[in-house]
């Protein structure tokens, strides 16, 4: 397969997943689009160097994450656009455009809980449960061992349970 065809397939297969990944990590829509554009532009301009890439999904997610972190050092998006992006992601993740009041409350609580996690744990949770990546793929994105990826997901789940319990106690 020609390099241009491979590039096109990568873009078509992963652009939506990359977009939702960036939005779910709390970045604004414009920042995510810019970062995806930058990742694919870099990939296209040096496509002959990437013959050794074995797992394109993990590579693209890691590249996007790195680019978003770089862009966040020079923030240009408003908090409102970040909030709208997260709400859109939650609506899509429930498979509906109009979320009823109960689901909306659950979605808001889940968003608050996930956003209260440290960045690496939030990233681990997203990769594991929203992107359905294996622990090996998560380890590749996080640049750590399989064991460390498992620990990160486990600690994130423990923290979500703890935060949820604290929120329930606080509301009583």
Write up this protein.
This protein has eight helices and no strands. The chain is globular and about 60 Å long. The chain has a single domain (3-171), classed as PhyR, sigma-like (SL) domain (Butyryl-CoA Dehydrogenase, subunit A, domain 3), CATH 1.20.140. Helix content is 77%, strand content 0%. It has helices spanning 3-24, 29-45, 56-72, 79-93, 101-115, 119-130, 135-142, 146-171. 26% of the residues are buried. With 172 residues, it is an all-alpha fold. Helix 3 (56-72) runs parallel beside helix 7. The longest helix has 26 residues, at 146-171.
Briefly summarize what is shown.
This protein is mainly α and 172 residues long. It contains eight helices and no strands. Helix 1 packs across helix 3, helix 2 crosses helix 3 and helix 7 crosses helix 8.
Supply the key terms.
single chain, 172 residues, mainly alpha, 77% helix, globular
Write the topology of this structure.
Elements: H1 3-24, H2 29-45, H3 56-72, H4 79-93, H5 101-115, H6 119-130, H7 135-142, H8 146-171
Briefly note the structural class of the backbone.
Answer: mainly alpha
Helix content: over 70%
Shape: globular
Could you list the spans in which at least 5 consecutive residues all have pLDDT below 50? 77-82
CATH class: Mainly Alpha
* CATH level-two architecture: Up-down Bundle
| CATH fold label | Butyryl-CoA Dehydrogenase, subunit A, domain 3
Largest sheet: none
Give the rounded overall mean pLDDT: 80
